[in-house]
Write a structure and sequence with these properties.
This protein is an all-alpha fold. It has five helices and no strands.
Length: 160
C-alpha cells in the first residue's frame, strides 16, 4: 500500500488508462485534421502527414508500450492472461502495434513525400497520393474499430 487506501494496482490502473487515452485518443482526431487540410490548406498536407508520423513514432507507439506493460501487470495481479477478454485485448494490442509499424509509419511517410511532390508540381493531389490516402483511411477504420472493441472488452470484462 503506497498511501492508505491507494494500492499499487490503483496507480498502475491509472497509468494504464492514461496511456490508453494518450495512445489512442489522438488518432481519432486524424481524419478531422486531414479533412480540414484537404479542404482548407492542401499545401499543408505534407506537414500534416509528417506530424502524424511523428505522433505515431514518438507518442502513440511508446504509449502503447505503457499500455502493454501496465496491462500485463494488471492482468497478472488480479486476473489471468487466459481470460478471453484479456487475451483478446492483448491480441488486439499486438495487431495495433503491427499496424503502427508496418502500415501507418511507412504510409504516412509516403503520403508526405507524395504531397510534397504534388505541391511542387503545382497540381492537386495525384492519383498515387490518393491511393496512399485511401490506404491510410481504410487501415485507420480498422484501427478505430479494434480500439473500440478493446475498450469494450476492458470495461465490460465479459465472462469475468
Amino acid at each position: 500500500m503506497l498511501i492508505p487506501g491507494i494500492e499499487l494496482f490503483d496507480v498502475v490502473l491509472t497509468l494504464h488508462i492514461l496511456a490508453v487515452v494518450i495512445a489512442f485518443g489522438v488518432s481519432f482526431a486524424f481524419p478531422l485534421l486531414v479533412g480540414y487540410a484537404r479542404r482548407q490548406q492542401p499545401a499543408d498536407l505534407a506537414a500534416l502527414h509528417r506530424f502524424q508520423g511523428l505522433l505515431t513514432q514518438r507518442l502513440i507507439t511508446p504509449a502503447m508500450g505503457v499500455v502493454l506493460a501496465a496491462g500485463l501487470y494488471l492482468a497478472l495481479d488480479r486476473y489471468s492472461l487466459g481470460d478471453p477478454w484479456i487475451s483478446a485485448t492483448f491480441a488486439i494490442l499486438l495487431v495495433l502495434f503491427g499496424l503502427a509499424g508496418a502500415v501507418f509509419t511507412p504510409t504516412e511517410q509516403r503520403c508526405a513525400q507524395l504531397a510534397d511532390r504534388d505541391r511542387m508540381a503545382g497540381g492537386g493531389p495525384s492519383e498515387e497520393y490518393e491511393a496512399q490516402a485511401r490506404k491510410l483511411a481504410i487501415f485507420s477504420s480498422v484501427w478505430y474499430l479494434l480500439v473500440i472493441v478493446a475498450i469494450f472488452l476492458m470495461t465490460a470484462k465479459p465472462g469475468a
